[in-house]
Amino acid sequence: MASTTVIMFPGMLSSQKDANAAAQQICDKLKFQAEQQAGRKFGIFTAKFYKTHTMGIGIVFIKVHVGGGQYAHLRIYQKQPGDPNPELKGIQYPKTLDDHIVIF
């Protein structure tokens, strides 16, 4: 089980949106790092939903389907939208489809 450090950010998250091609691109770039942090390999790694931080600080949270009924929540930092080098700052795993994306 991956450990999680809770970081407090002022503000809130946007409403949940269906993942798009940009969210999947970010996930594709960060899959290996997510596997390392979770301590396991993921057969699939499909972005399903995402939320952004409302304070405009470059934080994105993505719910990723990792196989079966399991999901992971990723906390990602981007210097700007479309940043070619997103950074994985945290992962919550395991999660379910019903688990809400929250700030962590």
TrEMBL record:
This is Cystatin-B-like. GO terms for molecular function: cysteine-type endopeptidase inhibitor activity. Belongs to the cystatin family. Gene3D superfamilies: 3.10.450.10. One of its GO terms (cellular component) is cytosol. Signal peptide: none annotated. It comes from Clarias magur (Asian catfish). The keyword Nucleotide-binding does not apply. Keywords: Protease inhibitor, Thiol protease inhibitor.
